[in-house]
Prior knowledge:
Layout: E1 6-8, E2 14-16, H1 17-27, H2 36-42, H3 46-50, E3 71-74, E4 82-87, E5 91-98, E6 101-110, E7 113-114, E8 120-125, H4 126-137
Antiparallel strand pairs: 1-2, 3-4, 4-5, 5-6, 6-7, 6-8
Amino acid sequence: MTTDGYFLGATGTRYDYSDIADRIRRDAPQTLGQHIFAQLEAIGLLRELQDGTTPCGLPFTFADNPRIAKFSARQDVRLPDHVFIALDDRFEIALIRGADGLSIEVYPITGDVVWDNPFDRFEVDEEVIRKLEREMGDD
Length: 139
């Protein structure tokens, strides 16, 4: 992605790449990471570019789609065997250490409210892992 270039549109307007990137992020986020033609079409500037002048090199995309997970972890003193991880404000994951192993429960978050019941649950039986570790040691 380039943010220091510009093009002159068909109307003579100067369009700085950084301003276009900001507009795409605000008005057409569904095009993040896509080719500049898709992005410009989404914000109504494709003809401006095609019929204008481009004195600077064009990037593939004006605005990348960075996919960086946002998460936070917490522990509730009332549930010392639980660790809760919030992921992208979309899921809460409970890691539960039990006598026989580990449980992982996934709770979606809808409208800032965590579901009462898990969407899915995954169990890890520690005895099964120990058995597999013993078998691997025999190789």
